[in-house]
Amino acid sequence: MTDQTPSNDAALRRLIWPLRLTRLGMVAERVVRAFWPVWTIVLLAVALFAFGAADALPLELLWVALGLTLAALIWFAVKGIRAFEMPTRAEALDRLDRTLPGRPITALIDTPAVGADDPASQSVWAAHVARMAEKVAAARAPEPDLRLSDRDPYALRYVAGVAFAMALLFGSVWRVGDMGDVVIGTGEATISGPSWEGWVEPPLYTGLPSLYLNDITQAAFEAPAGSRITVRFYGEAGALSLRQSVMAAPVEADADTTAPAQDLVLERSGEVAIEGPNGRSWQISMLMDQPPAVVMDGDMTGVPPGQMQFTYTATDDYAVISGQARLMLDAEAADRRFGLAVEPEPREALVLDLPMPFSGSRSEFSELLVEDLSQHPFANLPVTVTLTVVDDAGQIGTIREVIARLPGRRFFDPLANALIEQRRDILWSRENAARAAQLLRAVSHRPEGVFDDDGAYLMVRTAIRRLESGVDSLSVETRDQVAEILWNAAIQLEEGDLADALERLRRAQDRLSEAMRQGASDEEIAQLMDELRQAMDDYMQQLAENAQPGEDQPDQSGETMEMSMADLDEMLRRIEELMQQGRMAEAQEMLDALRQMMENMQITQGEGGDGPRTPGEQTMQDLQDTLRDQQDLSDDSFRELQEQFNPGRPNPQQGQPGQQSQQGQGQQSQPGQPGQEGQQQGQPSDQAQDGQGGAQSGQPPQDGLQQGQGQGGENDGRSLAERQEDLRRQLEEQAFNLPGEGTEGGAAAQRALEDAERAMDEAADALGRGDLADALDSQSEAMEALRDGMNELGRALAQEEGAQEPGQGQADGTMQPDRPLQDPLGRQAGNSGAFGSEEGFEQREEAFRRARELLDEIRRRSAEQERPEIELEYLRRLLDQF
After folding, report:
1. Are the C-beta atoms of 202 and 208 separated by less than 8 Å?
2. How far is CA 732 from CA 329, 623, 736, 751, 790, in A?
3. CB atoms within 10 A of CB 176
4. Per-residue DSSP letters for 285-344?
């Protein structure tokens, strides 16, 4: 290799700045590698002195530490100077050249050793140099490598850097400047003078920052009570002294006020002064920690059936840490008659912990306390409530409230109420044991007609025996056992566990009447009204199930009145409104009328015959049975699809929408279907008509269903495809005899049933192939077409009956499923409530609710990714239809 030629100078001049930056980076690398121990020691020493290491060490030890630090600095500085070498231009050029592909810089400064006189060789060389010059134009200075992990494996440089940063944030850099006074000694200390430093640290619970006395130039400031005042003196001993009047105890005569370190606690307002050179004084005003306060927001209220609740608000200047509610019996405020005439036995106070907020500030907050004290001896008696809150300083805030009645469970059954009263008397004082035993024996003397529950009667007799066995010395354990027995008996009598719906309805009405007499609260009235509605629904369902077709109907030659569920709900709503308005007499009168109506109510199928009167009614009932059977078959198909891919998996269909559709097919049908209204008002459900429906329509028996889900007994081992084909033939016969021929509604019904028949045929083919997913789609389409056909048929029948002369309808006013209903004012409510009536609106709401439940169930199952893909695909297709 020879020296570069002048022709390459232009390309190399473009490397001036990349070469300079490369050389500068190499200098930085070598400086860091050579001198990193020096600046590590410097940063660490500054951090230690900033945090007061010089003040903590004796002077001799400080001198030793400074000497070692200085020696280490000199040693590493000399070592670094010896190890450091300034990078040359050639080294920088070589570093830059190694970053470029093909080493183009070397090529530019090189010349060919042979072939200088050969024109061809010169041409090749010139082309090569030109390409290298293009690469040199893209040269960039490489980043310096400042990593020191090989030289500093313990990362001491980072430790020093962090310590220095912490010193800048939390330490005092001025202490480093005072090192001269400490190190130089007495002579220099006399020149610069002594120094001092002080802090005021408030208690931690206040959350306030510390104060640095050196930065406080005001003559006075405020600080919380209990603040810690720390003062440090530096320099000549005795040159500075502390004078203070913030401590409650007087300063002793022999106290050393010139000690280098002194600590005070702010116990009262006073003065803190540093006397001596550069001294200063402050007048500190102590901020008293105010005790917390608590108030009860509003009254203590009851939450049925037996909870009590109240809201309280607590405040403090800093934070409340805990609280309690202490309940004591207020015997003087009680009605001291009967069992309460004797003096009560002393009882310990009931202590409840007040709820505290989980997050946020506790200086001011409101919380709700809810407790069930219905079984406590203080329940339904006057009490005094003492609320107590405590702050971090241990200060207490308290308030006392008088409660006329501690909310507890109220019993509206007269017998249950009597048992609870005797329980209260026994818990009030054991002196009432003999009296309570006599009263309980009188109550249970003739249980017939009094005790509706034999278990409750036996409990009362057990309580009597235990009371009479310990009349002379009734122990506390026996008293508590008797109280528990009486409570359970009262609960059983109040809530009951009767199977008869009429008895539950009567019980709910009696409890509501007793609540009106006792002036119950709005919440208790609302709870009792809900129980009455539930009991009425159960009673109507029982009437519907017991009204079997073919039975002799009662004599209806007298006057009758048509009532729907909407009318009954309106009566209940009106009763509740009257009770809330305080018009108890009117509410009681309406409740008595409702009781009489419910006990005299009869649910009929028609005009007293043994089944539907007309061919239209017969056809509509047969179509309803076919629709129900198709739903059963669809459910069985879906269960078999699940079983194919999830063998042994528990059947998820129990209680799911598929079963609901079978249990209430009449309600799930479209509102315009004749026969649906009668079922909602108490007609026998489809399950109660199994025997009749199957006999009339010729439906094939079905298997694999639970009791109450199908008709006709067992399926004799027939396959799903065979059952589907039987349903198709059955629908074909029903469509052949369809009434309403020649009318628009009849033609629409015929077309819908033909669509249903076609879908059933496709479902049978799919079941024969074993394609359950496609079969389910076809079955869904068939059920939808069936519902449409029933709607159209219902409208056609309604139009035919509307054209009849007056007087040809039902004369006794009993409810028919296929005739226009009347409201209590005699107005027609449309065809089974389907055209504009309020009842039809409620039916549509019920249908929408059921549809929403079914849609939610489909979505839930489609989200279970462990199901087979074919099942998930089927569920997604169902969701697409919605």
Report:
1. yes
2. 79, 11, 6, 12, 14
3. 17
4. EEE--PPPEEEEEEEEEEETTTEEEEEEEEE-SS-EEEEEEEEEE-GGGS---GGGSSPP
Instruction: Write out the two tokens for 216.
Output: 């406080």
Exposed, middle or buried, 774 (CB in 10 Å: 0-12/13-18/19+)? middle
b/e string for 510-549 if b means 16 or more Cβ within 10 A? ebbbbbbeeebeeebbebbbebbbebbebbbebbbbebeb
E-only strand ranges, 543-635: none
Residues 6+ positions from 435 with CB-CB distance below 8 Å: 339, 425
**What is the SS3 assignment for 388?**
strand
In whole angstroms, give the CA distance from residue 42 to residue 77. Answer: 12
DSSP 690-749: HHHHHHHHTPPP--S--TTS-SSS--TT--HHHHHHHHHHHHHHHHHT-S-TTSHHHHHH
Burial class (CB in 10 A: 0-12, 13-18, 19+), 722: middle
Q: What are phi and psi of 294, to 5 degrees?
A: -145, 140
Q: Provide the pLDDT for residue 321.
A: 93
Structure token digits, residue 250: 């007087």
Q: How remote is the C-alpha of 828 from its chain's centroid?
A: 48
Closest to 218 (Cα-Cα) out of 195, 200, 194, 192: 200
Summarised one tens digit per residue, pLDDT across range 616-649 is: 777 788 888 888 888 888 888 888 887 776 665 5
**How far apart, in Å, are the Cα atoms of 565 and each of 81, 562, 582, 705, 840?**
104, 10, 26, 31, 11
C-alpha to C-alpha distance for 20 and 23, rounded to whole angstroms: 5
What is the Cα–Cα distance from 400 to 406, expressed in whole angstroms? 14
Which pLDDT tens digit goes with each residue over 362-421?
999 999 999 999 999 999 999 999 999 999 989 999 999 999 999 998 888 889 999 999
Neighbours of 698 (CB within 10 A): 14
**Strand bridging mode 364-372 / 280-287:** unpaired
* Cα-based distances in Å from 43 to 34, 146, 227, 543: 17, 19, 34, 94
Q: Dmax of the chain from CA atoms?
A: 143
pTM of the model: 0.45
Secondary structure letter of residue 256 according to DSSP: -
